[in-house]
Specification:
This protein is of the alpha+beta class. The protein has helices at about 5-20, 30-45, 70-85, 110-120, 150-160, and strands at about 20-30, 50-55, 60-65, 90, 100-105, 130-135, 140-145, 170. The longest helix has 15 residues, at about 5-20.
Length: about 180
């Protein structure tokens, strides 16, 4: 028959496994917000563990002629570019800092944009430039796992710290109790 010590050890293991862990996912957090949330969890909820996954941002590269002073100037410049044989150009007409710029292409890599710029320069276009356009900034995804008994308090603390962020449940939950 099992000894008294074995019975107690078994009861402790069963009790540890019966405390379910929950996993809360905070996705697409700005880096500063993720840092704040991790610090709060570490400070106020030591029973919880965080797993941080960096999510790369995305960018594109724009070949363009900077905005011209007037619509007439941009139309005149576009006509000059067409005479030089420049394919695929577009005069930006949206309000904002790029109004009246002339777009000469959008590329997923800097190398492709640079190749386009060099081709345009060989055609006689001198005022074209390349700039990076960040379409989605780098972000962080945090998985926070810990005891179900403290999960509501954690969610409340996260909501107070980052009210605009809505957490979700992780797709898979694995118990950290062994």
């Amino acid at each position: 028959p099992p000894s008294e010590t074995t019975k107690v050890e078994t009861a402790v293991k069963v009790a540890e496994k019966s405390v379910a862990d929950v996993c809360t996912l905070f996705g697409d957090l700005p880096i500063a917000a993720a840092d704040q949330l991790e610090a709060r969890v570490s400070d106020k909820f030591p029973a919880f563990k965080t797993v941080r996954t960096n999510v790369a941002g995305s960018a594109s590269y724009w070949v363009f002629i900077p905005p011209l002073a007037s619509k007439k100037d941009s139309d005149t410049k576009a006509a000059e570019l067409k005479k030089l044989g420049v394919p695929e150009l577009f005069v930006v007409q949206e309000s904002g800092p790029n109004n009246r710029a002339i777009s000469l292409g959008l590329f997923s890599s800097k190398e492709a944009a640079t190749t386009r710029l060099e081709m345009l320069q060989s055609m006689g276009v001198k005022s074209a430039k390349v700039t990076e356009r960040v379409t989605k900034p780098a972000a962080v995804m945090l998985e926070i796992r810990g005891p179900e008994t403290q999960a509501d308090a954690l969610r409340q603390a996260a909501a107070e710290l980052l009210p605009e962020i809505k957490p979700s449940t992780c797709k898979t939950v694995s118990s950290t109790a062994q």
